[in-house]
Specification:
Blueprint (H helix, E strand, L loop, with lengths): L4 E7 L2 H9 L4 H15 L2 H11 L4 H7 L4 E6 L5 H16 L2 E7 L11 H17 L12 E7 L16 H20 L3 E7 L7 H5 L1 E7 L4 H11 L6 H10 L12 H16 L7 H10 L16
Parallel strand pairs: 2-5, 2-6, 3-4, 4-5
Antiparallel strand pairs: 1-3
Helix pairs in contact: 1-5, 2-5, 6-7, 9-10, 9-11, 10-12, 11-12
């Protein structure tokens, strides 16, 4: 399966737990996402709630269970979409005691343009997911024996709108295969979540978006969120005034209307500050400001320009 998946990880996973914890400032998104995902993967939870509160499983609960198991993450580059998609399942697997895997679909599934190749690779990916699940069910009412989260990063590369006039026939067939795969999971009543990440949600086929049980928007961190990132990494090292200074210079300015992304902060700035200080200087505000002035933020994604994502 190496030709269609970049990674397959058993959950819970300590590394993904840490990755999930590093995603600060996304508490509301995390809470809503884990609730949605837990109920989609294990409908017995909602059934039990309905029985307790109403003495029966109300029709709305049955309708809830029949939604396609698709979640869409949309937003700017570097805002935590992929990191959250890969890691949130680890917490669910531990809390619900479910055997789970996260399977990260490779962009090689798009193929090289040969007739039928993209369709075959996408179908093969969904076959692999179904085989991984086996006979485990969801709407049967009990907790599933195993579950899968299928992560599709840069989803617009596979699910581009078929309404584009110049779209290649092979790409149209691939989108059809993707829709059929999602419908297959819905109809088979299997505990699988498909999480699509994109910074071009407008390019995704409307039929795919209509199937989304939930959509979550991601944006660059605001002042409070950037401050939380710096506090979490430099607690008891930098004072309140210093932290506020870092928040100010990493936000939007008169010269640029956008601030730093989460990945800018955690993958570039903070490591850069540590490297600048090591081996014989402490972390101080002057040093941190010096590093930040040398590392500009990632530009927002614009149609027609490749994203400069770190």
């Amino acid at each position: 399966m190496n030709d269609i998946f970049d990674e397959i990880i058993d959950l819970p996973d300590p590394g993904l737990d840490r990755q999930y914890g590093y995603l600060v400032g996304l508490d509301e998104t995390k809470e809503a996402l884990t609730k949605q995902a837990a109920l989609l993967l294990n409908p017995a939870l909602l059934n039990a709630w309905s029985q307790k509160q109403h003495g029966k499983v109300v029709p709305a609960v049955e309708r809830f269970h029949h939604r396609p198991p698709l979640i869409v993450f949309e937003g700017d580059v570097g805002t935590g979409k992929t990191s959250l998609a890969e890691s949130f399942g680890s917490q669910i697997a531990r809390e619900e005691n479910i055997s789970m895997k996260v399977m990260h679909l490779s962009l090689t599934a798009r193929g090289r343009g040969a007739v039928g190749e993209m369709t075959q690779l996408i179908t093969k990916a969904f076959d692999a997911v179904v085989n991984e699940i086996g006979e485990s069910k969801t709407r049967s009412g009990g907790k599933p024996g195993r579950a899968v989260i299928l992560v599709i990063d840069e989803a617009d590369a596979l699910a581009q709108s078929r309404e584009i006039e110049q779209m290649h026939h092979e790409d149209r067939a691939g989108v059809n295969a993707l829709i059929q795969g999602i419908d297959r999971l819905t109809n088979r009543d299997q505990p699988v979540l498909v999480v699509m990440c994109t910074n071009r949600v407008g390019a995704i086929d409307p039929a795919v978006l209509r199937r989304a049980a939930a959509r979550f928007s991601f944006s660059r961190p605001n002042d409070a969120q950037r401050k939380q990132v710096f506090e979490d990494h430099f607690a008891d090292v930098l004072g309140e005034e210093d932290l506020n200074k870092l928040v100010e210079i990493t936000g939007p300015t008169d010269r640029r209307p956008y601030g730093y992304t989460y990945s800018d902060l955690t993958q570039r700035l903070i490591p850069g500050i540590l490297l600048e200080a090591y081996p014989d200087r402490p972390v101080e505000i002057a040093l941190a400001v010096e590093v930040i002035t040398r590392i500009p933020p990632t530009e927002p994604f614009r149609e027609g320009r490749p994203a400069d994502q770190p």
